[in-house]
């Protein structure tokens, strides 16, 4: 026993099971069959993490101290009270001479110790950050790894936080993917959006675009992710998203309108009692899968038997062979969607659906937002932020890429504020000549310089007094001018160029930028003190590719706008709209508007067709695919089945041509505006090598 599975590290009780009872020797020096890993990040099992937070009243310092105390007292991050388990990610420091090393690990490699922390000797020196989104901590210290413990080597540029989260599911993602084969209706029940997303994606990855996946999150779910590509990922994965009380299964099922039961339902809720809704929602001979080892499988089996349901009830089966490879591939595919996402805490009174507050809804119906249309949850959240910040007389920075609508947001804040009847002065900081910038902002006295107006001139600050000043492209403002702007904000007064008398000003400043101002601050390109003065409330506008649900509303808005301008009434086909939703639109709303304007001019029929959009988006590829304008127009005059055939033939030719032109699937997918996964499926469908 002393040489088995690191039992030489057991201090007490010696050489007995279970592992949860062990106190371990976490000394830094390693035995010949061990490896020491420097800690970067630790993932804690969700229920245990919440228990620690509850016991410390969510006091961060106490959370840190409790976790460290456990490792001091037990020599590991696990005890019978908190039942803390999880995984650790870190850098290999030292490898013993007798350590079995099938992966050929070397010092400096990044690894994840893919086994419960119940049996890993660990020493935590300091906890730098608590990541509530992923139930993780960033820490310094080390962990001792015996050669019987599963280790996953982490490739560069992998989102380690997400991979840790996925690997903690004990191989169930792989099992779920296998079980999804041949099924069409799926239900995922949980109380963590990230977990539900991962399981939903595992299914969607297997079944493709066909099939229905419903996401059911408990209404007391603690956090929500938005922004980045999260919203587009949600749209790709789920057909429906509901927030309901999962401990009231009958009521929840009524609200789901689940007359047609599900072929496969997954329970990944860390809530005792949540088993019933999965059992009731699954059709006879269907499958119920419990996503992790802590779910109460026995209770589920008893319930199933007691209500005489004929179901295939399954549970996680521990660490499956090669599941780490599957999880790594899955995480690599979804990780880009998580970039630049934001975390929002949800109230316990979360609505049944993703929806706006009644107040925001009323605003949408008014002319106040007549040119600010949206349907996506991402923009609903932004709208809520706009309405909230409009009430307070504070400075705001609007972040977002070119073309997302930053000026429209600024307009909306001003129109909704108490200063709505006062001046609203808009300035493009990147368009002002450096020689004139001071006089433009502060004005000048008569005779201040050669060529000056004989009566002097008011600057932006005088013009905007008691109103709002919108500083677009604030990141382009020269450093010298930044210092002067800071003084005005601090002192509430300024001097005209050539003037000696101070002028009082009362201006609310809204700024906007497509730059990374924090990076600019670090590089000395933007003043830190000015950044803090301006960035009282930040609002980030997601890119159009992150909120594809907004595209139909925007397209219809632009069709109406340019229909009036050009004196024509033109609609758009369903297939054309669907195609536009799948395009990347790097120029965002501005690019979309320009495209609709062109299509209003170039389209030949009453409605804009799929072929019109394809020609506009991919003119070169359209020609290269060997499908010309005349052929396209003739095809669309034929009956529907022929049009479908024509479109498929064009798609086949386009993909084949693009593959030959661009080579890699990544470049090809980007060129034609679909995901790599979609491209691979379509290549298989059309038998393209």
Structural account:
With 689 residues, the chain is α/β, with parallel strands linked by helices. The chain folds into 4 domains: 7-167, Quinone Oxidoreductase, Chain A, domain 1 (Alpha-Beta Complex), CATH 3.90.180; 172-345, Rossmann fold, CATH 3.40.50; 358-542, 3-Layer(aba) Sandwich (Rossmann fold); 549-685, Helicase, Ruva Protein, domain 3 (Orthogonal Bundle). Strands 6-7-3-4-5-8 form a 6-stranded antiparallel β-sheet. It has a 6-stranded parallel β-sheet with strand order 12-10-9-13-14-15, sandwiched between helices. It has a 5-stranded parallel β-sheet with strand order 18-19-22-17-23. Strand 14, helix 9 (297-306) and strand 15 (312-315) form a beta-alpha-beta unit. The chain starts with 9 loop residues before the first strand and ends with a helix. Mean pLDDT is 81; it is low at 80-84, 345-357, 363-367, 628-633 and 635-642.
What key attributes describe this structure?
single chain; Quinone Oxidoreductase, Chain A, domain 1; Rossmann fold; 6-stranded antiparallel sheet; 6-stranded parallel sheet; 25 strands
Can I get a quick summary?
The chain is of the alpha/beta class and 689 residues long.
What layout of secondary structure does this protein have?
Layout: E1 10-12, E2 23-24, E3 34-44, H1 46-55, H2 60-74, E4 86-95, E5 110-113, E6 122-131, E7 136-146, E8 151-153, H3 160-167, H4 172-179, E9 185-190, H5 193-207, E10 212-218, E11 223-227, H6 230-237, E12 240-244, H7 249-256, E13 262-267, H8 275-281, E14 282-290, H9 297-306, E15 312-315, H10 323-338, E16 341-345, H11 358-365, H12 377-390, E17 396-399, H13 406-416, E18 424-428, H14 437-442, H15 460-463, E19 468-472, H16 479-491, E20 493-494, E21 503-504, E22 508-513, H17 517-522, H18 528-534, E23 537-540, H19 551-566, E24 571-572, H20 574-581, H21 588-602, E25 607-608, H22 610-617, H23 619-624, H24 629-637, H25 640-662, H26 665-672, H27 676-685
């Amino acid at each position: 026993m002393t040489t088995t599975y690191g039992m030489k590290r057991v201090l007490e009780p010696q050489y007995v099971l279970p592992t949860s009872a062990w106190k371990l020797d976490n000394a830094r020096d390693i035995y010949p069959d061990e490896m020491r890993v420097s800690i970067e990040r630790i993932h804690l099992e969700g229920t245990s993490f919440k228990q620690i937070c509850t016991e410390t009243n969510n006091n961060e310092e106490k959370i840190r101290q409790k976790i460290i105390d456990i490792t001091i007292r037990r020599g590991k991050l696990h005890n019978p009270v908190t039942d803390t388990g999880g995984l650790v990610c870190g850098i290999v420091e030292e490898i013993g001479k007798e350590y079995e090393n099938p992966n050929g690990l070397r010092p400096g490699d990044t690894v994840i110790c893919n086994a419960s922390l119940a049996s890993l000797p660990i020493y935590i020196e300091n906890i730098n950050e608590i990541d509530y989104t992923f139930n993780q901590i960033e820490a310094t210290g080390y962990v001792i790894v015996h050669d019987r413990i599963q280790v996953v080597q982490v490739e560069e540029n992998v989102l380690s936080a997400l991979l840790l989260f996925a690997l903690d599911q004990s191989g169930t993602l792989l099992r779920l993917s296998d079980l999804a084969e041949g099924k069409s209706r799926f239900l995922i029940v949980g109380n963590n959006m990230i977990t539900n997303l991962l399981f939903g994606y595992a299914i969607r990855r297997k079944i493709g675009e066909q099939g229905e996946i419903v996401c059911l999150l408990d209404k007391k779910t603690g956090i929500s992710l938005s922004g980045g590509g999260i919203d587009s990922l949600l749209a790709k994965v789920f057909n429906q998203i509901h927030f309901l009380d999962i401990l009231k299964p009958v009521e929840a099922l009524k609200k789901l309108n689940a007359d047609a039961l599900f072929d496969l339902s997954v329970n990944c809720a860390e809530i005792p009692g949540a088993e019933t809704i999965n059992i009731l929602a699954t059709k006879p001979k269907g499958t119920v899968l419990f996503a992790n080892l802590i779910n109460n499988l026995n209770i589920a089996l008893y319930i199933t038997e007691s209500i005489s349901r004929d179901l295939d009830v399954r549970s996680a089966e521990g660490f499956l062979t090669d599941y780490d490879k599957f999880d790594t591939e899955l995480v690599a595919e979804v990780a880009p969607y998580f970039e630049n996402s934001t975390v929002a805490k949800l109230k316990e009174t979360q609505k049944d659906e993703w929806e706006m507050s009644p107040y925001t809804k009323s605003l949408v119906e008014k002319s106040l937002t007549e040119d600010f249309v949206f349907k996506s949850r991402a923009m609903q959240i932004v709208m809520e932020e706009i309405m909230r910040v409009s009430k307070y007389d504070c400075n705001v920075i609007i972040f977002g890429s070119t073309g997302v609508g930053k000026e429209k947001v600024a307009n909306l804040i001003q129109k909704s504020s108490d200063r709505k009847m006062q001046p609203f002065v808009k300035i493009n900081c990147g368009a002002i000549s450096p020689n004139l910038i001071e006089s433009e902002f502060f004005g000048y006295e008569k005779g201040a310089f050669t060529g000056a107006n004989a009566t002097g001139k008011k600057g932006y600050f005088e013009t905007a007094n008691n109103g709002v000043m919108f500083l677009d492209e604030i990141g382009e403002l020269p450093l010298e001018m930044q210092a002067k702007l800071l003084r005005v904000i601090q002192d509430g007064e300024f001097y005209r160029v050539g003037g000696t008398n101070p002028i009082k000003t009362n201006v609310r400043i809204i700024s906007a930028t497509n730059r990374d101002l924090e990076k600019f601050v670090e590089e000395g390109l933007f003043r830190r003190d000015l950044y803090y003065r301006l960035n009282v409330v930040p609002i980030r506008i997601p890119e159009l590719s992150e909120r594809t649900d907004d595209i139909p509303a925007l397209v219809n808005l632009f069709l109406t706008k340019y229909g009036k301008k050009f004196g024509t009434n033109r609609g758009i086909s369903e297939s054309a709209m669907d195609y536009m939703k799948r395009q990347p639109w790097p120029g965002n709303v501005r690019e979309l508007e320009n495209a609709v304007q062109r299509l209003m001019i170039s389209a030949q029929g009453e409605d804009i067709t799929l072929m019109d959009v394809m020609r506009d988006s991919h003119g070169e590829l359209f020609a290269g695919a060997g499908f010309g304008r005349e052929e396209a127009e003739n095809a669309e005059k034929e009956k529907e089945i022929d049009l479908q055939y024509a479109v498929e033939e064009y798609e086949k030719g386009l993909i084949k041509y693009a593959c030959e032109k661009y080579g890699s699937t990544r470049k090809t997918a980007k060129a034609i505006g679909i995901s790599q996964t979609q491209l691979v499926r379509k290549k298989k469908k059309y038998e393209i090598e």
